[in-house]
Amino acid sequence: MRVAKLRRSDLRRCAELEQVLFPADDPWSRAAFAAELDMGHYYIGAYDAGENLLGYAGLALVGRPPDAQAEVHTIGVDPAHQRRGIGRMLLKALLTRADQLRAEVFLEVRTDNDAAIELYRRHGFEIVGLRRRYYQPSGADAHTMRRAAPTAAALSTVEESR
User: Fold this and answer.
1) Domain encompassing residue 54
2) Residue ranges of region Disordered (predicted)?
3) In this predicted model, what pLDDT tens digit does every residue of 83-109 receive, in sequence order?
4) Which end of the chain is more exposed for a tag (fewer CB within 10 A), N or C?
5) Cα distance between residue 20 and residue 22, in whole Å
6) How many domains does the chain have?
């Protein structure tokens, strides 16, 4: 499996997966994914050996160091391929990109999505807020989570270990 820049030819598949993964919460359309790419946001896909899309993830970046911020816009993995580390791999790739800009990272996650909350906590996120009725039309609440920007010292340690 490999992670690479999301291909425009995969946007229809992304929209199909959204319908399966988020049916009660206004799943994104192909056009919504295209708009994210058109705005220059960082989108990646997880591909198997046959180049089939197994998952996708997106990150919006705003500003420049030392004031850079990033927001995880989406992470989705085909249900047939969940629990195999694909979501973790996609998240790590997004965080690597954010770390390159020394950006703090924010995201929203459903308060009832315990697996995702634990994944984010293992990668340095903490809950910093609650957004009531954030997801529509379901009305589900969301936690806002934040991961601090890495320090220059932490980044050089990571680079040395590679």
Assistant:
1) 2-161
2) 141-162
3) 999 999 999 999 999 999 999 999 999
4) C
5) 6
6) 1
